[in-house]
Write a structure and sequence with these properties.
It is a single chain. It contains 23 helices and 15 strands. It is an alpha/beta fold. It has an eleven-stranded mixed beta sheet, with helices on both faces. Strands 4-5 form a two-stranded antiparallel ribbon. Helix 5 runs antiparallel to helix 6, helix 14 (380-390) runs antiparallel to helix 19 and helix 17 runs antiparallel to helix 18 (439-447).
C-alpha cells in the first residue's frame, strides 16, 4: 500500500487514470446495493400492507349462520347443482356455507389470497331470484367457485406471488372468469401461489405459506396449491388453476383431488398474468394452459363444458374452435377403453407407494373389463427435452427480472445457484459427478444451462422428433389413454420442493409434448412404504428424507391422452375413478364443529 501511495505521489496522473476509475466503480456498486436494499424494503412494506388489508377484510366480515354447512361442503359441485335445481338448496345457502368454510380454513391452511364474500353473497341472492323467474344462466348457475391468484378478476390483483404486483387491480375479468360468470358461477375467493409460480410449493412474501390439509408439515404443491388445499378441505366445490409443468396436477395429487391439464389452446389463457417483467414471456414452445380442479371427474367435465365453447372462441380467437363433444364423456360406464401404462420414466425412480397405486389401478381396470397393456419406451427423453427448453434462457433471468427488485425466496437458492453456474465450471462439475457415479446429476448440470439460438432450436427439434415417435407407438398400440405416476413422491415436507423438484418429471413430460393429462386419487401411503430407494446421488438422498413420515398422504395416478382428445382423457379418468371406487378420507380440519 505504501509503495502504491509513493508511486501515486510521484505520478499524480496515475491517480486519475487508474485509482479514480476504481473508486468510481466501487462507489457505483455501493450505490446500486443501497438502491437494491431500499427497493427490497419498499416491496416488503407493500406486501405487508396488502396482507394486512386482506386480513382486516376477513376479520371484519361477519358471515351469516348456515345450519347445513357441514352437509353442504361435503357435496361435489355436481351434487350441489342438482340439489339447487330441485329446490332443496338455495345458491345463497351454498355460497354462505363455502364462504364460512374458506374463512375458517384460512387459519390453518393459509390458502387464500383475497376474498369477495360480500359480492358473492349478493350474487347468490340474485341467482336465486333468477331461478325462481326461470332465468337460468347456464349449467353452473348459483355455484361458488375459487380462482387462482394469477387469473384476472376485475378490481382484484393477480400477484403471481410477486410483491410488485400488489395494489395493481385488473380492469376486467379474464375470459375464463367471464365464461364462468356467464354460466351462472359465483367467484368468491382467490387462492395462494408460490413466488414466480415456479416451484411445486406455495409461499410468497404477500400471502404466506399454504399447508397440506392432510399434514400441515407438508406442502400442498404449486403453483395452483392454494386451490388444491382449499378444495380438498371442503372450502370450495370447484376451482380454476393453470399448468406449465404440473401446476394443476401436482397440487391435485398432493391434496387428493382431481385436476385436468387440457391441451394448450383448448381453453383460454387471455387475461391470465405472466410472472415476467411487464407481463411478457417469449417462452412459447412449452405453453401454459388453464384448467379445472375439483373433488370428482364429473365436476371437471362440467367445467370443461363451460370453458370449451363457442363463447370462448368468440372472446379469444387464439382458442381452438373445436367444440366440447359431450357425447364422448356420456359413454362413461359403458365404453371399454384400451389403456397403456408404465411404472418408471427412466429419469426419477418412482416411490413404492406410487408403484402400488399404478398396479392397483391397472388391476381394477382389468376387472372392469378394460384392456391394459404395459408400454416400454424411454420416457426420460421427453423429460430431458423439457429441462433443456425451460432452462435455455439461463440463470433464471426471466424470473429475476419479474421480481422487479424483490428478494428471491430462500427456497429457490438451490435451483438459482445451479442455474447460475459459470459456463467454464459446468463441464468440470459434470465430469466430476460422472466419475463419482452420479450420472443423472452429471447430465442435469450439463443440460440445465443457457443455450444459443442454434442449440435451442436443436433441443426443440429433438423434442419434436421424440414426440412424433411416441405418437407413432401410441397409435400402433391403439391406446385410448396412458396411466403413469403424477409425481415420483407424495407431498414433500414444507420448503423442500427445490431439492425434490426432479420427482416432477412425470408431469414435465406431458407439458413438453402438449398432451392433455389429469390426476385421480386412488389410495394413501402405507407406513411400510416410507423407505425410499433409488440410484445413488443427491436427488435420491433428498427423496429419502422427503418420503419419511409420508404415511397417510394421498396417492393418485395420472391419465394422459393424445392432443385434442381432452374428452377422451376425462372419460379415461372417470373409468379409473369408477373402477378403483376409492374416496379419500376427510382432512382433519375440513368440517366445522357440530353444535
Amino acid at each position: 500500500m505504501n509503495s502504491m501511495l509513493t508511486l501515486i505521489k510521484k505520478n499524480p496522473k496515475l491517480a486519475l487514470g487508474v485509482v479514480l476509475p476504481l473508486i468510481l466503480v466501487a462507489l457505483r456498486r455501493v450505490i446500486n446495493s443501497l438502491r437494491a436494499l431500499a427497493r427490497q424494503k419498499e416491496l416488503k412494506e407493500l406486501a405487508d400492507e396488502k396482507r394486512r388489508h386482506r386480513d382486516a377484510i376477513l376479520e371484519a366480515m361477519d358471515l351469516p349462520e348456515c345450519k347445513r354447512e357441514r352437509e353442504i361442503v361435503q357435496m361435489t359441485a355436481t351434487e350441489l347443482l342438482s340439489r339447487m335445481e330441485s329446490g332443496d338448496l338455495s345458491s345463497l345457502e351454498v355460497t354462505i356455507a363455502f364462504c364460512r368454510a374458506a374463512k375458517r380454513l384460512q387459519g390453518s391452511l393459509v390458502c387464500l389470497a383475497e376474498t369477495d364474500f360480500e359480492t358473492a353473497i349478493a350474487m347468490a341472492k340474485q341467482r336465486d331470484i333468477e331461478r325462481k323467474e326461470g332465468k337460468i344462466r347456464g349449467i353452473l348457475h348459483g355455484l361458488p367457485v375459487s380462482i387462482k391468484d394469477q387469473i384476472d378478476m376485475k378490481e382484484f390483483d393477480s400477484t403471481c406471488g410477486l410483491s410488485c404486483r400488489c395494489f395493481k387491480p385488473a380492469h376486467e375479468d379474464a375470459v375464463l372468469v367471464k365464461l364462468l360468470r356467464d354460466a351462472g358461477a359465483i367467484p368468491f375467493v382467490r387462492t395462494n401461489v408460490p413466488q414466480c409460480l415456479f416451484l411445486p410449493e406455495c409461499f410468497n412474501a404477500i400471502w404466506g405459506e399454504t399447508k397440506n390439509p392432510f399434514n400441515l408439515e407438508r406442502t400442498c404443491g404449486g403453483s395452483s396449491g392454494g386451490e388444491a388445499a382449499l378444495i380438498a378441505a371442503r372450502g370450495s366445490p370447484l376451482g380454476m388453476g393453470s399448468d406449465i409443468g404440473g401446476s394443476i396436477r401436482g397440487p391435485a395429487f398432493f391434496c387428493g383431488i382431481c385436476g385436468l391439464k387440457p391441451t394448450p389452446g383448448r381453453t383460454s389463457y387471455k387475461g391470465i398474468a405472466v410472472p415476467r417483467l411487464n407481463g411478457i414471456s417469449g417462452q412459447k414452445i412449452i405453453p401454459p394452459v388453464s384448467g379445472p380442479m375439483a373433488r370428482c371427474v364429473d365436476d371437471l367435465n362440467l367445467a370443461m363444458e363451460v370453458l370449451v365453447s363457442e363463447k370462448a372462441f368468440k372472446a379469444d380467437c387464439l382458442v381452438s374452435p373445436i367444440p366440447w363433444d359431450k357425447s364422448i364423456y356420456e359413454k362413461k360406464g359403458s365404453k371399454k377403453l384400451k389403456f397403456g401404462y408404465f411404472i418408471q420414466d427412466g429419469y426419477f425412480d418412482l416411490c413404492s407407494a406410487g408403484e402400488r397405486a399404478i398396479r392397483e389401478t391397472v388391476e381394477a381396470l382389468r376387472k372392469d373389463g378394460h384392456e391394459v397393456l404395459e408400454v416400454k419406451w424411454d420416457f426420460s427423453k421427453l423429460v430431458w427435452g423439457f429441462v433443456k427448453c425451460m432452462s435455455a434462457e439461463g440463470g433464471m433471468r426471466g424470473f429475476i427480472e419479474g421480481l422487479e427488485g424483490e428478494k428471491l425466496h430462500p427456497t429457490y437458492s438451490f435451483i438459482y445457484h445451479m442455474a447460475n453456474l459459470p459456463g467454464w465450471v459446468r463441464p468440470i462439475v459434470s465430469t466430476a459427478m460422472g466419475l463419482l457415479g452420479k450420472a443423472r446429476v452429471a447430465k442435469l448440470v450439463k443440460e440445465a444451462r443457457a443455450r444459443t439460438t442454434y442449440d435451442y432450436w436443436g433441443a426443440v427439434g429433438e423434442l419434436d422428433f421424440n414426440k412424433k415417435q411416441l405418437i407413432k407407438l401410441w397409435t400402433e398400440m391403439g391406446l385410448d389413454a396412458m396411466i403413469c405416476a403424477p409425481i415420483g413422491l407424495p407431498a414433500f415436507p414444507n420448503q423442500q420442493s427445490a431439492k425434490c423438484m426432479q420427482s416432477c418429471s412425470y408431469t414435465f413430460m406431458w407439458n413438453a409434448v402438449k398432451f392433455p393429462a389429469g390426476v385421480v386419487p386412488v389410495t394413501q401411503v402405507k407406513p411400510e412404504e416410507e423407505p425410499y430407494e433409488g440410484r445413488p446421488d443427491p436427488i435420491t438422498e433428498a427423496a429419502k428424507i422427503a418420503n419419511k413420515g409420508s404415511a397417510g398422504l394421498p396417492m393418485g395416478v395420472q391419465i394422459v391422452s393424445l392432443p385434442w382428445r381432452d374428452e377422451l382423457c376425462l372419460l379415461a379418468m372417470k373409468a379409473v375413478e369408477d373402477a378403483v371406487k376409492w374416496r379419500i378420507p376427510l382432512p382433519p380440519m375440513a368440517l366445522p364443529e357440530e353444535d
